[in-house]
């Protein structure tokens, strides 16, 4: 009897389930394009861990073109799905390839998490959308086109005061439709402004070490005031540029960070 691999079994179960839910009278055979799409998603999930285990020395440095609103990137690096104190917002979105960044930004993001792990190991963080492997249009975002933009979900504490990852799931569009109140609360969660300030300070430190600049931080204007009132937040106003314009979406559940590295003209 032929033994199927775990991936093959998973694919068969997905296809069988799909056939079972088709309406009577419809064609029950799964089309080749649909089957290939499922295979690609499964293969991506299996390969993410393998690719992320490659050392920096084995990879080619990224080349960015244009700017965050109109650009592209070559040799982008995919962020790890998780680490000791952080995780991606969705394994599914990771499998689709929505977490690629410039190689310099890759180093900054991971070094910042590593720095926090040493100084505040109990804090938990979640990152969100970054960009495609080759950059370009990245809906629904206006930016994120050349590997220099990263969304970070706000760190939160639960009703006991414990640092926990913000719950991201399909029903809340992987965190992006979560709405915090003006005092930073959502259900049983509260924004940990001190942890957020620690993270932004760690990003600034790591960026300086790698010769990268932080262009701007986009975060809800009202919640910015609470951030600056935190113990570490006061220093951030002098260290980083926070956008004062009202963003086209609120940016209360996440803060958007744009970095600066030398890019080529995209002509």
List keywords for this structure.
Muramoyl-pentapeptide Carboxypeptidase, domain 2; single chain; disordered N terminus; four-stranded antiparallel sheet; 7 helices; 13 strands; alpha+beta; five-stranded mixed sheet; 267 residues; globular
Structure annotation, total helices? 7
Shape verdict: globular
Strand runs, count: 13
Level-1 CATH class name of the largest domain: Alpha Beta
* Residues in β-strands, percent: 15-25%
Tally the structural domains.
2
Distance between the termini: 57 Å
Q: What name is given to the CATH topology of the largest domain?
A: Muramoyl-pentapeptide Carboxypeptidase, domain 2
Mean pLDDT: 83
Describe the structure.
The protein is α+β, with helices and mostly antiparallel strands. The protein has seven helices and 13 strands. Helix 1 packs antiparallel against helix 2. It folds into two domains: 59 residues, no CATH class; 200 residues, Muramoyl-pentapeptide Carboxypeptidase, domain 2 (2-Layer Sandwich), CATH 3.30.1380.10. Strands 4-6-7-13-12 form a five-stranded mixed beta sheet, covered by helices on one side. The protein is globular. Helix content is 34%, strand content 17%.
